[in-house]
Amino acid sequence: MSHSHAGHHHGKHDNTGFRLALAGVLTLGFVCFEVLAGLYANSLALLTDAAHNLTDVLALGLSWYAHRLSSRPANANKTFGYHRVGILVALLNSTTLVIIAFGIFHEAWGRFSAPPVVDSYVLISVGSAALFVNLFTAWLVSHGSKNDLNLHSTFLHLLGDVFSTFGAIASGVVIWLTGKYWLDPAASSLIALLILWNAWNILGETLTILLESTPADIDMSKMVEDFLQVEGVLGVHDLHVWSLSRSLRMLSAHVQVLDIPISQANLIQSQIRDVINKEYGIEHCTLQMECEGCDNGKLYCEKV
């Protein structure tokens, strides 16, 4: 049996926590200002943006907590560590985005029939300030978000705000030029569609990870071929590939070889790990070496 986990980086120390906290404080302060401005201007677009910003505060807080918790090392009760905490936060963030989007649709529908008068000057000026704040907070959270689904879901929250505030500014300009107040709920509806699209993508990825599905970019047929190309490998079965988080993938397999000394089997294991790491980026690899006659004929284990 071979078990490799050279890729574990527990307790990673960086300034992600500080950046999340700073982004949260800035966003919360601006939410209060934007609500007052939206009520004064009678603008659904501004109130919509404020509501989305408020969920961002929650998302940032949860991401900050998940980041701290995921840095804890594995222990007897959590032998895989706390990597899934970030996935649960991403699931919660995406769910709140869906709820917010449908709430916006509901309010916008009512305003289409009787559009209220909107103060376009306030809409444009406050929207411009919101755009600056959202761009800055999105930049703060963008570092490291590519390989961390927790950070990525929060980044999409903030990036959605960038587009929503841009939509609010655009609707304010058009309302100022044309006097068509129905453009305010129209802009809100477009913002809601964008929010819903982002939420759907994150929701799908989090469910894929929680269901321990094979990562979408991994071709299992090709992986089996790569196993068999290693000299000394006769077959492979009980093959499993899954993810603990977006960047941490796991593999386990039973590998059939000739009845050879343990030292030779270790060399084969090392070669397999090198191939799997190079071709698929999987560093956490558990391999059980078996001699001829042990193969149960099943590539994927059907036991539950």
Description:
With 304 residues, the chain is an alpha+beta fold. The relative contact order is 0.14. Strands 1-4-3-2 form a four-stranded mixed β-sheet. Helix 8 (262-280) links the parallel strand 3 (249-257) and strand 4 (284-291). The chain folds into two domains: 8-210, Cation efflux protein transmembrane domain (Alpha-lytic protease prodomain-like, Up-down Bundle); 220-291, Alpha-Beta Plaits. The longest helix has 31 residues, at 83-113. The protein has helices spanning 16-41, 44-70, 83-113, 120-142, 149-178, 183-210, 220-229, 262-280; strands at residues 2-5, 233-243, 249-257, 284-291.
**Backbone CA Rg:** 25 Å
DSSP summary: helix tally: 8
- Specify the oligomeric state: single chain
CATH architecture descriptor name of the largest domain: Up-down Bundle
Keywords:
304 residues, alpha+beta, Alpha-lytic protease prodomain-like, Alpha-Beta Plaits, 2 domains, four-stranded mixed sheet, 8 helices, 4 strands, 64% helix, 11% strand
Indicate the topology.
Elements lengths: L1 E4 L10 H26 L2 H27 L12 H31 L6 H23 L6 H30 L4 H28 L9 H10 L3 E11 L5 E9 L4 H19 L3 E8 L13
Parallel strand pairs: 3-4
Antiparallel strand pairs: 1-4, 2-3
Helix pairs in contact: 1-2, 1-4, 2-3, 2-5, 2-6, 3-5, 3-6, 4-5, 5-6
